[in-house]
């Protein structure tokens, strides 16, 4: 749908990241021509089957304007999630911003755990082992690539 409101009043630089397995942080900048009293509100829908939810914990700037949101207990589904940020102002209509996002693409993975190093000086080799990081969108073993940086002492 076409967004009513003043051109340049919608938010810009919308970005979300999922971290620590179940937390999601979304941020944005105010529209370039949005009046100073503009307040923004974020809604998201994980899938078509679920209800749209408003942000429960907004991140505000020095003017108490909502500039981000922290979501807890986020789980990643197979469908693209829908995000909508609309705004309100006493002075003018504010354009909305919306986007569909594959949540698994914005997940920042935890580092591997239980890293062990066993070296055998007689064979002049080492075995390094670890457990893959926990991820929120699957319990299956996925294809992970690791980079190992070894520094000699």
From TrEMBL:
One of its GO terms (molecular function) is cytokine receptor activity. This is CSF2R factor. GO terms for cellular component: external side of plasma membrane. Pfam families: IL6Ra-bind. It is a single-pass type I membrane protein. It comes from Elachura formosa. The gene is Csf2ra_2. InterPro entries: FN3_sf, Ig-like_fold, Short_hematopoietin_rcpt_2_CS, TypeI_recpt_CBD. Gene3D superfamilies: Immunoglobulins. It is found in: Membrane. The keyword Metal-binding does not apply. Keywords: Glycoprotein, Membrane, Receptor, Signal, Transmembrane, Transmembrane helix. Residues 13-106 form the Type I cytokine receptor cytokine-binding domain. The keyword Acyltransferase does not apply.
